[in-house]
C-alpha cells in the first residue's frame, strides 16, 4: 500500500495522465504580419460570434460550418497516420494546411486526439497505433477488454480513485505493473513530462490558430456519459451486458459514484473556459445497444445529472449523438434549454428538429458514407436540403454526421463548404 502522502502525489499525476490522453496534441506556428494579425482578429470574432449565435438557437449572418476533420487532415496534407500520431510538428502542419485552404468557422481539434509517444512511454495496452502494432497508414484501434472484473465493483464503489490507482492503472499500462516500483515511478515521470509538453503545444497552437488564421475551436474539454465510462473503458461491452442481468444494483451504485467525477473531468479539461461546449461523444446510448427500460434506468439518469451539473457551472455540452437516438428524443428534451448542442449522426433529423429544435441548436447529419463514396453534386444537393429544411430559423450548424477519416474525398469537403457558403446566408 502507498503512504497517504505518496498516494496523493501519485493520484495527482494519474489524473493528469488520464486527462491528457484524450486531448488534442498541437503546437505553435510561424509569426504573422501585423496586417494578417489585424485581419485574423476580425475574422476570429466574426466566426466565433456566428458560432455562438447559432448555439444559442438564433440566426447569425450565415450558417456556421464546424468540421471534425480528424484523420482526414493527414490525408489532405499527404502524410501517413503514423506521422501525425507520433510527430507533433507534422500533426500541426496538417492542421495548418487545412486552415489555410478551407473556409470553415470552427474546427474540433487536430488530426487526432491521440499521441502515440505518450502511450508508448507508459506501456498502454488498450491502444494500437499505426507504425507500431498496425500498418503505417491504419487508424488507431482501441483494444476493448474487461479491464475491470466483476469482483472489483465493491472496491470501485468504495473509493474509485484508489481502485484506479492500485488496480486499473497497472492492468492497462505495462510500465505500472508494479505500483510503487522504480519502473512505475519513472513511467509516471515520463507521462507527466509528456503531458506538460503536449499541454504547452496545445496552448501555443490555439493561440497560433487564432492569430494566424482567425480560427476558433468548436469545443473545450471532454466528458463521457457515466454508463460509457463503465461500459466502454472499464467493463467492456460483454462485461456490462452480463452485469445488466446479474448485478444491476452494482451498476447503479457505480454510475452514481461516477457522476461527480465526470462533471469534474469535464470542467477540469475545459480549464475554466465557458463560451464553448464540452465535447461529449456518446457510444453505448444509441438504439439498440440497450432496450428502452435499460436506457431509462441505467443510461439516462446519470447522464442527465452530468449535463445538468455542467450547465449549472455555465458549461454547455456538445451532445455528440453517435448512432440512432430516435427513441430517446423526448427524454432528451427534458434538459434545460440551450444546455446542449444536439449533434445528429443517424438520428432522423426531422424528428430531432421537431422535438428538440425549439430548445437546442442542431448540428451535423451530412452522412460520412456520402462524403466518402458520393459525388460533389450529391453532397451539394444534400447540404442544400439541410439548409432549406432545418436551418431557415437559425440554431443550426453544418457538419458531417461523424468524425472524418481518410476515406473522405477532398472534393466532397470542398462541395460541403462552398454550398453552405452560397446557400446558407440569412437575409
Describe this entry's structure for a reader:
The chain has 427 residues and is of the alpha/beta class. The chain has a single domain (11-115, 200-424), classed as TIM Barrel. Helices cover 55% and strands 7% of the residues. The chain is built from 18 helices and nine strands. It has helices at residues 4-20, 34-55, 72-77, 81-86, 88-101, 116-121, 153-158, 160-172, 182-213, 226-234, 236-246, 248-270, 292-312, 329-332, 349-356, 368-373, 376-390, 410-423; strands at residues 66-67, 106-107, 127-128, 141-142, 278-282, 317-321, 340-344, 361-364, 396-397. The strands form three sheets. It has a five-stranded parallel sheet, with helices on both faces. Strand 7, helix 15 (349-356) and strand 8 form a beta-alpha-beta unit. Helix 10 packs across helix 11 (236-246), helix 12 (248-270) packs parallel to helix 13 and helix 17 (376-390) runs parallel beside helix 18 (410-423). The radius of gyration is 21 Å and the shape is globular. The model is unreliable at 1-37 (pLDDT under 50).
Radius of gyration equals: 21 Å
Q: Write the element-wise H/E pattern from the N-terminal end onward.
A: HHEHHHEHEEHHHHHHEHEHEHEHHEH
CA distance, first residue to last residue: 67 Å
The main sheet orders its strands as: 5-6-7-8-9
In the CATH hierarchy, the architecture is: Alpha-Beta Barrel
Q: How helical, in percent, are the residues?
A: 40-55%
Silhouette: globular
| Top-tier CATH class | Alpha Beta
Q: How many structural domains does the protein architecture include?
A: 1
Number of helices: 18
Spans of 5+ residues with little confidence (pLDDT < 50)?
A: 1-37
Work out the number of β strands. Answer: 9
CATH fold node name:
TIM Barrel
**Structural classification:** alpha/beta
Q: Mean pLDDT, rounded to whole units? A: 90
* Major sheet attributes: 5 strands, parallel
DSSP strand content? 5-15%
